[in-house]
Design a protein that fits this description.
The chain is of the alpha+beta class and 105 residues long. It has 3 helices and 4 strands; from the N terminus they run βαββααβ.
Length: 105
């Protein structure tokens, strides 16, 4: 599995209701993508970037197919109305620790 982390800051003075409507629609679109395992969205407790969207994919090919899709192009264009400082990172498993470690297991 791979993780795609998208981070951004919300523009000052945006219409929060319009942003929430955009976000709900964007999440619904992403949830339909083949190979998507999980979506997590977090808000920073310390400042910028303010938002982190984490998409977990079965493999890099599934992400690449979604990344090149017209749906993603529309989502990215829509986000520009509400955000700046947009960044993206792709992460794969570590050869040293390929599976999550949990206490007591």
């Amino acid at each position: 599995m791979i993780e795609v982390n998208k981070t951004y800051d919300l523009l000052p003075g945006i219409d929060q209701q319009a942003y929430l409507e955009y976000a709900k629609g964007a999440l619904a679109t992403m949830l339909k993508a083949l190979g998507l395992v999980e979506i997590r969205v977090n808000r920073s407790l310390l400042g910028s970037p303010q938002v982190r969207l984490t998409l977990v994919w079965e493999n890099l090919a599934d992400w690449a197919k979604f990344a090149e899709s017209p749906e993603r192009q529309r989502l990215d264009s829509g986000l520009l109305k509400f955000a700046n400082n947009i960044g993206i990172e792709l992460w794969g498993p570590s050869p040293a620790v390929p599976e999550p470690l949990r206490p007591g297991k």
